Amino acid sequence: MQIKFEQFAATSMLGSPDSPPRDNGEILFQRHWEGRAFGMAIALSKKGHYEWEDFRQGLIASIAEWEATHCKDDPDWDYYLRWLSSLESLVLESSLVSEEELEERTRLMLAEADTALPQS
Amino acid sequence: MTENVDRETYSAARVRALESLLIEKGIITGETVDKVIDFFEKDMGPFNGARIVAKAWVDPEFKERLLADTPSAIAELSFPRGMAGAEGENMAAVANTPEVHNLIVCTMCSCYPWPVLGLPPYWFKDPTFRARAIREPRKVLKEFGLDIDESKEVKVWDTSAQIRWFVLPERPDGTEGWTEEQLAAIVTPESMQGAAKVAVPA
After folding, report:
1. I need a labelling partner for A6 at 20 to 30 A (CA). Which of B73, B87, B114, B200 fits?
2. Which class does domain B45-193 fall in?
């Protein structure tokens, strides 16, 4: 049976705590970076850099960790922040990128964002 | 330093940092990421089901084929690859009529035909919803704002790996002469689950 990896990945999350936000049946990205983080996590697994199940378990654990220290209806809840944190951990753990590199590049991007944004 | 940067700016920068490093190292390309996003935003979703419904509304012969053999009828439409494959081959459409209203529930949401219906809403996977939908479907439908006349039969279908059901809703009045595209635009995922009727926007 032929099934696309993207389809397998999304199907495995449905009905589970890691199931992604959606609106009227369509996957919902509220901010540009959410889509990029979502796409990266699936693309890395699709290319064989880690097992999809490992990403899912990391995400489920990250969600559980947040829930253990916050109320259920905490307005600060952010699915894609959990997603990003699991993606980061797995990328570092799989030695695809080193922590120093990531910190250094993040600083660079922040500096860029600083100069790119018009200051009022 | 990071304490002074707001969370949004930081997250956006972090994602850009990650992606730029992965691309630089040749681990992935930006196009691979674009393709994954496109798959979810453009290839798979409720817009596919809406196209099937609209076609069945304007083409009675297609409708007949759709109800008799759903997978081969779907295969007639040129959908992105994967659609007629694993998820599509066990699909079965049930038609709402003046006599019967159909409602879909799911035991295992991993069996939900989302390439056609889109990702299921949160309430759909709720075990209480499923149990109640089977026990008292009229009451549950009423809570959704659907008052089904007592004379009408309500059928509940449990979608599973064996058969992935979806509802062919009734075409609303006031849509005579509409094109397939116009019709597809008003078909909602809820209407294909049987949790709503298709309404003509005011």
Report:
1. B73
2. alpha beta
